Amino acid sequence: MTAGSHATNGPVSKAKRLDLRLVEVMPWDEAAGSRVKGEDRLTPRQRHFVAAMIAGAPTASAGYRKVYTTSNMANKTIWDEASRLMAHPVVSCRTG
C-alpha cells in the first residue's frame, strides 16, 4: 500500500467532501440533538421566495425578482434560477 492510500489517511473523495459540506450548512437543533428539518433548512431568501409565491406572485420569475437582486441578470437566467428554486423539495412542497 502506498503512502496516503490507507482509508483513514488517504484523500477524501469528492462525493465525501460534498456530503460533509451539506451536513455543515444544515442548522443543528441542540434540544433534539439532530439536524433541523423542514422550513428551517431553507435560507432566509428561500423563505422570502416561498412567502412571495404564497402572497400571489404571478410567476416564479416574478417571485424571484422580488427576493433576489436581478438587475444584472438576463431574463433567461432569472427564469432558470426561479425554476431551479421551485424544484427544491422543501420550496415546492410549501408553494404547492
Summarize the model shown.
Helix content is 52%, strand content 4%.
Q: How would you describe the overall organization of this protein?
A:
With 96 residues, the protein is mainly alpha-helical. It has two domains: 12-41, no CATH class; 42-95. Helix content is 52%, strand content 4%. It contains five helices and two strands; from the N terminus they run αββαααα. The chain has a two-stranded antiparallel sheet. A hairpin with a 4-residue loop joins strand 1 and strand 2 (34-35). The radius of gyration is 19 Å and the shape is globular.
Q: Helices and strands, in N-to-C order?
A: HEEHHHH
Q: Compute the number of strand runs.
A: 2
**Alpha-beta classification:** mainly alpha
Portion of residues in beta strands equals: under 5%
Helix tally equals 5
Output the strand order for the largest sheet.
1-2
Radius of gyration: 19 Å
Mean of all residue-level pLDDT scores: 75
How is the main sheet built? 2 strands, antiparallel
Which parts are unreliable, with pLDDT below 50 for 5 consecutive residues or more?
14-26
Number of domains: 2
Distance between the termini: 54 Å
Outline type: globular
Can you give the helix content as a percent range? 40-55%
Question: Keywords for this structure?
Answer:
96 residues; mainly alpha; 5 helices
Secondary-structure topology with pairs:
Elements: H1 14-25, E1 28-29, E2 34-35, H2 44-54, H3 60-67, H4 75-86, H5 89-95
Antiparallel strand pairs: 1-2
Helix pairs in contact: 2-3, 3-4
